[in-house]
Amino acid sequence: MPSPHVTFLSAPDESVAGNILSVDLAALADNYQLLAEKSGAATCAAVIKADAYGLGLEQAAKALWAAGCRTFFVALPQEGARARSVLPDAMIYVLNGLVGDSSAVCADYYNSFSLRPVLGSYEELDLWETYCASIATPLPCALHFDTGMNRLGLGRKSAFMLSEKWKQNPPSFIICLIMSHLVCSDQPHHPLNSQQLDRFRSIRACFPDVPASLANSAGIFLGPDYHFELTRPGIALYGGLAIGDHPNPMKVVATVKSRILTTRNVPKGWSVSYGAQEITKRDSRLATLCIGYADGYLRAGGSSDEKKGAKVWINGYEAPIIGRITMDLTIIDVTDIPHETVRRGSWAEIFGEHIPLDDVAHHAGTIGYELLTSLGLRALRRYL
């Protein structure tokens, strides 16, 4: 018996697991290979921020390295430190730049883990320059230029001014990459895509000898003009839909299953779950799953009399959610499924091979990115 003082974030084994998250690392590697092929002559990197989109940074990083990836992107320095612990020889860029205060302590943290900040403001340039000069060591970094997102990044005029300045007085750091971020690449015909491409080309002309990067997952599928020297896929690696209204060519990486706790018969005309938002339209058989919004199964994906919610899959049958998703539990309508198929202890697929991730996200009014990165810590995790 385990000590009563042991605290488990997730179930210690399947016998007491309410939910299971399976991560197919072979599918992740295959997705990387497909994206690398689609990237053509460009090198294909991998974005592993947000705990590799909720699926486990260390495990994903090792699988991607084994698949041939050598350049990785995270959002925060602590994510970079975690990645460095399993990727001793990788190039690791921190997309959010120099996160922290304006002191050498902040910059020293990056240096200690050999992280490359993506610098997108004059304040960051000054801090990195001052730090590199103080240790008399030119450290690598990337420069981020804004071409339409208006989130992070230096302006286009800055590209010309900085390039002219550095021709006369080179900086104390090494510029290894220039980059920008596409705004509407999931909409292939959006006019902003070509506008951003033109803007980025003008920026790139200021730094002709520095590798450049523009394409995210969807940007890879926009074609070679957007690839430059480095592509940076994220969501597509993990099986998510990169481009709307197109078939998803990526393999399923994440599968979430939830245990059925109980079933019950409910007469026609009874309300189900909080708020009495849905009423049974017939004599029904309902099942309660051991998953809720505390596990990342978003509350907005629930059902009501006015709006139908997501579905789950049980042994060859689909079953719709009925009523609101609650913190730890979700109710589904299994009236049309054979009784012997649905009983206490059976498993229902929340999303995976049979219920696409992005379909569930759609019912919750969001995108696959949010659903994956919202996954809680209570599910038993299996890496295949």
Verbal overview:
This protein is of the alpha/beta class and 384 residues long. The chain has two domains: 25-238, Alanine racemase (TIM Barrel, Alpha-Beta Barrel), CATH 3.20.20; 254-383, Lyase, Ornithine Decarboxylase, Chain A, domain 1 (Beta Barrel). The protein is built from eleven helices and 19 strands. The chain has helices spanning 25-38, 49-54, 57-66, 77-86, 104-112, 122-134, 156-168, 191-204, 217-220, 357-363, 368-373; strands at 19-23, 43-44, 46-47, 71-74, 91-94, 115-119, 140-144, 174-179, 212-213, 230-231, 254-266, 271-272, 278-279, 284-289, 311-314, 317-320, 330-333, 347-351, 380-383. The protein has a seven-stranded parallel beta sheet. Strands 1, 11, 14, 17, 18 and 19 form a six-stranded mixed beta sheet that branches. α1 crosses α3 (57-66), α3 packs across α4 and α7 (156-168) packs parallel to α8 (191-204). It starts with 18 loop residues before the first strand and ends with a strand. It catalyses: L-alanine = D-alanine. Catalyzes the interconversion of L-alanine and D-alanine. May also act on other amino acids.
